[in-house]
C-alpha cells in the first residue's frame, strides 16, 4: 500500500499529549513529513489505547480513533507473526506480542510502522520502520 503508514500506540499517545500541551513535538513532526500518507491503526493498537487512563470513556476512545481506518489481522498477518516470532525467538530478540502483531500487519500490507520505539520494531526482519524521538 503505497503512501500508507501504521501509527503505533506510542505515536497516538504522543499526539494526544502534544495536543493537550498545545506544543507540537516529535509525533506531529514525523507526521508533518508524511502529510500525504494515509494513516492506519490495527485492533491491537486500538486495544492498547482503550487500556489507557485517558480513554476510560468509550465515546472518547471512539472519537479519538475515528479518523484512522483499521488494517485487520488476516491470514497473511498471522503468517508474518509466526515467521517473525520464530526468527526473533531464535536470535534472542523477541519483542512484545502486541508489537509483533502490529509489525505482522505492516508486513502483510507492505506498510511501514511509525513509532517512537524504533529499536524494538527494527528487530523485525523486512519491516519498514519510521522512527522518531
Summarize the structure.
The protein has helices spanning 9-21, 26-32, 43-50, 58-65, 75-90, 97-109, 118-121, and strands at residues 4-7, 38-42, 70-71, 113-115, 129-131. The chain has 133 residues and is of the alpha/beta class. The protein has a single domain, classed as Rossmann fold.
Q: How many angstroms separate the termini?
A: 25 Å
Strand order of the largest sheet: 3-2-1-4-5
Total of DSSP H or I helical runs spanning 4+ residues = 7
DSSP summary, beta strand count: 5
User: Structurally, how many domains make up the residues?
Assistant: 1
Uncertain stretches: none
- Alpha-beta content class: alpha/beta
Question: What report would you give on this structure?
Answer:
- 52% of the residues lie in helices and 13% in strands.
- The chain has a single domain, classed as 5'-nuclease (Rossmann fold).
- The chain has seven helices and five strands; from the N terminus they run E-H-H-E-H-H-E-H-H-E-H-E.
- Helix 7 links the parallel strand 4 (113-115) and strand 5.
- Helix 5 crosses helix 6.
- The chain is an alpha/beta fold.
- It has a five-stranded parallel β-sheet with strand order 3-2-1-4-5.
What is the fold's blueprint, element by element?
Elements: E1 4-7, H1 9-21, H2 26-32, E2 38-42, H3 43-50, H4 58-65, E3 70-71, H5 75-90, H6 97-109, E4 113-115, H7 118-121, E5 129-131
Parallel strand pairs: 1-2, 1-4, 2-3, 4-5
Helix pairs in contact: 5-6
Amino acid at each position: 500500500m503505497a503512501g500508507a503508514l501504521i501509527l503505533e500506540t506510542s505515536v497516538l499517545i504522543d499526539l494526544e499529549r502534544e495536543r493537550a500541551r498545545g506544543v507540537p513535538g516529535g509525533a506531529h513532526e514525523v507526521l508533518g513529513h508524511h502529510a500525504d500518507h494515509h494513516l492506519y491503526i490495527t485492533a491491537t493498537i486500538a486495544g492498547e489505547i482503550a487500556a489507557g487512563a485517558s480513554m476510560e470513556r468509550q465515546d472518547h476512545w471512539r472519537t479519538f480513533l475515528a479518523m484512522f481506518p483499521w488494517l485487520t489481522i488476516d491470514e497473511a498477518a498471522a503468517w508474518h507473526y509466526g515467521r517473525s516470532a520464530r526468527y526473533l525467538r531464535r536470535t534472542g530478540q523477541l519483542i512484545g506480542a502486541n508489537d509483533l502483531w502490529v509489525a505482522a500487519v505492516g508486513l502483510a500490507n507492505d506498510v511501514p510502522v511509525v513509532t517512537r520505539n524504533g529499536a524494538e520494531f527494527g528487530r523485525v526482519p523486512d519491516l519498514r520502520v519510521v522512527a522518531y524521538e
